[in-house]
Amino acid sequence: MTVQPTPASATPEGGHLLELRDLHVEFRTNEGVARVINGVSYHLDAGETLAVLGESGSGKSVTAQAIMGILDTPPAFVRSGQILYKGEDLLTRPEEQRRQVRGKEIAMIFQDALSALNPVFPVGWQIGETLRQRAGMSRADARRRAIELMDLVKIPGAAKRIGDYPHQFSGGMRQRVMIAMALALDPKVLIADEPTTALDVTVQAQIMDLLADLRRELNMAMILITHDLGVVAGVADRIAVMYAGRIVEHADVRSIYKAPAHPYTKGLLESIPRLDVRGQELSTIKGLPPNLMRIPSGCPFHPRCPYVQQVCVDEFPHDLVLGDGRTSACHFAQEVRDDSVAR
Ligand SMILES: Nc1ncnc2c1ncn2[C@@H]1O[C@H](COP(=O)(O)OP(=O)(O)OP(=O)(O)O)[C@@H](O)[C@H]1O
Ligand code: SF4
Ligand SMILES: [Mg+2]
Q1: What confidence score (pLDDT) does residue 319 get?
Q2: Is residue 272 scored above 80 in pLDDT?
Q3: Cα angle at 101 between 139 and 27, to 5 degrees?
Q4: Which structural domain range is residue 329 located in?
């Protein structure tokens, strides 16, 4: 079977557009085996935005690279799991078919986007290159489409700026160019990996607004990877919180903000300033993420968790499904949620 390009809404009956099932990825290095992704499961439907959130090193980018089929192998190896796109497991597809999916079906804006532009070519040429190579467009058509794409991402005076070089654009405008390149082949899923990290706060907000607008206009599904819970509120439908290569809490945005059901999510929320609460005390999560070559026993979060009990040290917490369809990988998910409501 091959993965044929189909409309965004075309998902297998009852299935999701994209679904990760129990994905495990490890890095085999001279120092040992790092278990980087440890059973990640999440899904995405047409037109919706899932925010994937977690501290540095939690495995957000590696998961995205696995979806794109661009893991650095070796040292990275997918140990087990499935990545279903329109019901077909991409992990079992030959490289040629994965290449077809990349960019055309699922595109990615990379974390180091600003350095990904080639300094010696005009931005319009770089956008057009994808169109010429992948969509077989003529130079003239690719140029026309590049201007349209620059317009789409709201670069002022696109037609005049198409011959400008990357250094002639501000950081925010360069990020818009990267978004235009990702959209060139009209993907159904856009993975945005920390798209605003290198930008100042005002520009960050503008880029997030742009991504939200584009998602609506193009009916694209989006995975928004970030370590900043503050930026996702107005953009995402659901949030998957990652810790040590696993989704520890998964819920719709409103529920998570109202009452987190995992101590790690609660810690993340308490460490961001809230405009609606006066005189709040901000806290940080104590300790550091674990060494992925020596993940703690039981619950990997236990050395840092304010709710820890002996059972957390002894027993691995499987996903607990809460009443409203949320999941939390915590032995005390209900108690943590109730405690969050009470505060
Ligand atoms: N090439 C590699 N070799 C060995 N380990 C790697 C390699 N690439 C990533 N890792 C490890 O995989 C883990 C997850 O990395 P990943 O880049 O997915 O984190 P992240 O959640 O995206 O973090 P950040 O917020 O910093 O981008 C990290 O512990 C990292 O050290
Ligand atoms: S299982 Fe225990 S250690 Fe882990 S998050 Fe829940 S309370 Fe904390
Ligand atoms: Mg990353």
Answers
A1: 93
A2: no
A3: 120
A4: 237-343
Q: Is residue 161 part of a domain?
A: no
57, two tokens = 């090193």
Q: What is the pLDDT of residue 280?
A: 59
Ligand with minimal distance to 314 CA: 2
Residue 58 in contact with ligand 1 by CB distance below 6 A:
yes
E strands present in 30-101:
32-44, 49-53, 76-85, 88-89
Average predicted confidence (pLDDT) for the chain: 90
Instruction: Choose among 250, 258, 212: nearest CA to 231.
Output: 212
For ligand 2, atom 1: residue with the closest CA: 330
Residue 243 CA, chain-centre distance (Å), reads: 14
Q: Give yes or no for residue 188 CB within 6 A of ligand 2.
A: no
Q: What percentage of the chain carries pLDDT values higher than 90?
A: 76
DSSP secondary-structure letter at 199? S
Residue 35 falls within a domain, yes or no? no
Q: Each residue of 60-79: pLDDT tens digit?
A: 999 999 999 999 999 999 99
Evaluate whether residue 148 is within a structural domain: no
> What gap in Å lies between CA 221 and CA 48, rounded to an integer?
5
List pLDDT tens digits, range 145-184.
Answer: 999 999 999 999 999 999 999 999 998 999 999 999 999 9
- Distance (angstroms) between ligand 3 centre and the Cα of 61 equals 4
Q: Which residue among 20, 23, 27, 247 has the greatest number of ligand 1 atoms within 8 angstroms of its CB, and so is best to mutate?
A: 27
Spacing, Cα 61 to ligand 1 middle (Å): 7
**Assigned domain for 199 exists:** no
Radius of gyration of the chain (CA): 21
| Tokens of residue 320, six digits | 């607990």
Q: Is the CB of 307 under 6 A from ligand 2?
A: yes
36 lines ligand 1 (CB under 6 A): yes
Q: Which atom of ligand 1 is nearest to the CA of 63?
A: 18
Number of domains within the chain: 1
By most ligand atoms within 8 Å of CB, the mutation choice from 62, 193, 226, 246 for ligand 1 is: 62
pLDDT tens digits along 295-337: 999 999 999 999 999 999 999 999 999 877 799 999 999 999 9
